[in-house]
Amino acid sequence: MSQTALQTIVPDSNAPFDSIRLKMLPAVPMTQDQFFDFCQQNRKIRMERTADGELIVMAPSGGDSSAQNLAVGAQLFNWSRRDGTGRSFDSSGGFILPNGANRSPDASWVLLTRLAAVSPEQMKKFVPLCPDFVVELLSPTDSLRQTMEKMEEYITNGARLGWLINPRRNQVHVYRPGQPVEILDNLTTLAGDPELRGFVLDLEPVWRP
Question: Cα–Cα distances in Å, from 208 out to 70, 83, 136, 202, 203?
Answer without folding.
Answer: 13, 27, 17, 11, 8
